[in-house]
């Protein structure tokens, strides 16, 4: 049984399970601290669990995320939830910060290896990491003791025996960390779970502290340097506030994620953007996970919603500029919503954040004009990205170079693929607007029924004699041919019909005996 040497109150059941598991199953010489705050400059960070084993000091982040989680780049894509930044990336950064803090206190701790692990507590949690970027630093509850016991995780150059350093480590921690007395709280929003993030932003799931039973929201907490000089600080503030400025220009719409609030913390060292917690998952999962496959009609519905949201965004003078499958959420009822407006352009203004785009934009979805000058990206650039996303969703692959390539796709009408081809035209002025593309897509999906055939034309100069609809013959059920009167065609009478003039002549012969 491991020894718990201090800590605060666990934030959720997932953290309680990990702490109890380590306490009850870890070796007796392991030491545990949990729910502590580690200072870092004028700020700090939360640590769920800190474990001192016989060969390393390991910082642990607990995640209650359930189901399949796909890793792509620096983002995690969970089922039925919005994407978030890799917690592994953030945790390793926190580990380096902790190591620096220990060395400031006791120089000999330079030889101690600080490891990092993300623990998934959901019973059905499954991490899919094709590139192997994060999987080495992720385990489940059953594998936690084994991962912590693995001496091979210690990198070359560090000691594999922490016994001589145990007292120094505890003293350094006691002089540095402080007990976390309550879950993090930002304004009136109390954190339920830290999702992930990077050095710039941390993402949380939170509830309203006044109404604990209320629905959850997503918090994006941006870190800022309040001591920076005015020029760099103003530039940092413009970048942080960009998403909120863009979203406030867009009236509520079912295909655009809504921003609820935005505010600064204390001395503007942090800014908080409050967003709806959409019960859905990133479109990226439907492009890569076989079991997430949508029917052709459902995929076309997603494309239609994407264009519907984009048309609404453009109608309110906002350009997204960074549209990709991670910015399109597919909800549980099959609707699609746009998100990810951090680098959007909200109308005309005196400054720009376009200079950040080369660092964040996925070039697979970037319009050709971006490759020459990112500042000239327009609404047409968004349409191009939407065309690439739609093509990939319908075909399972990215389009080939050139607007005329890949004209068809299995299961999708050729007319639909033609709309997507025009959306990806290399020349921005030849692409349809989002609203035009939406109209064209709807027309291609639901072509107009053929017009009813007009009645057969009457012979020129003839009109039917009957003033009432003909009655079908009782034996055959076929109505009699109508009688005709008037002047027949010059090239003969209507076939099978007796002109009125001949009828009068025959009646005259019968009466006169001629």
In a nutshell, what does this entry contain?
This protein is α+β, with helices and mostly antiparallel strands. The chain folds into 4 domains: 3-182, Trna Endonuclease, Chain: A, domain 1 (3-Layer(aba) Sandwich); 183-277, Phosphorylase Kinase, domain 1 (2-Layer Sandwich), CATH 3.30.200.20; 282-448, Transferase(Phosphotransferase) domain 1 (Transferase(Phosphotransferase), domain 1); 484-514, no CATH class.
Can you describe this structure?
Residues 10-121 form the NERD domain. Keywords: Kinase, Serine/threonine-protein kinase, Transferase. Residues 438-514 are annotated as: Disordered. Residues 447-458, 467-482 have a biased composition (Pro residues). Strands 1, 2, 3, 4, 8, 10 and 11 form a seven-stranded mixed β-sheet that branches. This protein has helices at 13-25, 87-105, 144-149, 166-174, 230-248, 284-288, 296-315, 357-360, 368-372, 379-395, 414-423, 434-445, 500-512, and strands at 3-7, 31-40, 43-52, 57-63, 68-72, 75-78, 84-85, 114-120, 126-128, 138-140, 178-179, 185-186, 189-197, 201-208, 217-223, 259-265, 270-276, 280-282, 318-319, 328-331, 336-338, 345-346, 462-464, 484-486. Strand 16 (259-265) and strand 17 form a beta hairpin. It is α+β, with helices and mostly antiparallel strands. The termini are far apart. It folds into four domains: 3-182, 3-Layer(aba) Sandwich (Trna Endonuclease, Chain: A, domain 1), CATH 3.40.1350; 183-277, Phosphorylase Kinase, domain 1, CATH 3.30.200; 282-448, Transferase(Phosphotransferase), domain 1, CATH 1.10.510; 484-514, no CATH class. Mean pLDDT is 82; it is low at 484-497.
């Amino acid at each position: 049984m491991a020894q718990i040497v201090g800590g605060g109150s666990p934030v959720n059941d997932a953290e309680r399970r990990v702490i109890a598991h380590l306490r009850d199953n870890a070796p007796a010489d392991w030491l545990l601290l949990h729910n502590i705050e580690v200072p870092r400059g004028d700020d700090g960070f939360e640590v769920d669990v800190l474990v001192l084993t016989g060969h390393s000091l390991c910082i642990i982040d607990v995640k209650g995320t359930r189901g399949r989680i796909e890793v792509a780049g620096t983002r995690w894509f969970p089922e039925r939830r919005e994407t978030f930044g890799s917690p592994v990336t953030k945790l390793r950064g926190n580990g380096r910060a902790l190591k620096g803090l220990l060395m400031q206190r006791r120089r000999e701790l330079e030889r101690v290896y600080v490891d990092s692990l993300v623990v998934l507590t959901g019973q059905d949690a499954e991490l899919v990491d094709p590139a192997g970027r994060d999987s080495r630093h992720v385990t489940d509850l059953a594998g936690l003791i084994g991962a912590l016991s693995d001496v091979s995780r210690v990198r070359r150059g560090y000691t594999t025996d922490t016994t001589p350093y145990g007292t120094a480590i505890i003293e350094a921690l006691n002089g540095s960390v402080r007990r976390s007395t309550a879950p993090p709280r930002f304004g009136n929003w109390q954190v339920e779970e830290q999702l992930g993030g990077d050095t710039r932003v941390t993402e949380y799931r939170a509830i309203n502290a006044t109404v604990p039973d209320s629905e959850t929201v997503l918090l994006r907490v941006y870190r800022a340097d309040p001591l920076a000089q005015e020029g760099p600080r103003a530039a940092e503030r413009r970048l942080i506030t960009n998403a909120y400025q863009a979203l406030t220009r867009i009236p509520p719409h079912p295909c655009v994620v809504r921003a609820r609030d935005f505010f600064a913390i204390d001395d503007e060292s942090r800014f908080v953007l409050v967003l709806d917690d959409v019960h859905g998952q990133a479109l990226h999962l439907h492009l890569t996970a076989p079991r997430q496959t949508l029917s052709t009609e459902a995929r076309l519905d997603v494309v239609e919603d994407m264009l519907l949201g984009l048309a609404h965004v453009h109608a309110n003078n906002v350009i997204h500029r960074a549209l990709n499958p991670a910015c399109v959420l597919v909800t549980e009822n099959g609707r699609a919503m746009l998100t990810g407006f951090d680098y959007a352009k909200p109308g005309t203004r005196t400054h720009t954040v376009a200079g950040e785009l080369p660092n964040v934009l996925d070039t697979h979805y970037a319009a050709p004009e971006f490759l020459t000058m990112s500042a000239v990206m327009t609404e047409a650039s968004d349409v191009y990205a939407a065309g690439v996303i739609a093509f990939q969703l319908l075909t399972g692959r990215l389009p080939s170079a050139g607007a005329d390539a890949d004209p068809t796709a299995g299961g999708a009408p050729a007319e639909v693929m033609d709309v997507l081809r025009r959306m990806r035209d290399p020349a921005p002025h030849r692409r349809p607007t989002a609203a035009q593309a939406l109209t064209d897509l709807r027309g291609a999906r639901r072509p107009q029924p053929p017009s009813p055939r007009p009645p057969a034309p009457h012979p020129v100069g003839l009109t039917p004699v009957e003033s009432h609809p003909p009655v079908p013959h009782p034996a055959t059920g076929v109505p009699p041919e109508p009688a005709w009167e008037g002047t027949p065609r010059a090239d003969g009478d209507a076939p099978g019909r007796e002109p009125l003039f001949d009828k009068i002549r025959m009646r005259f012969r019968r009466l006169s005996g001629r």
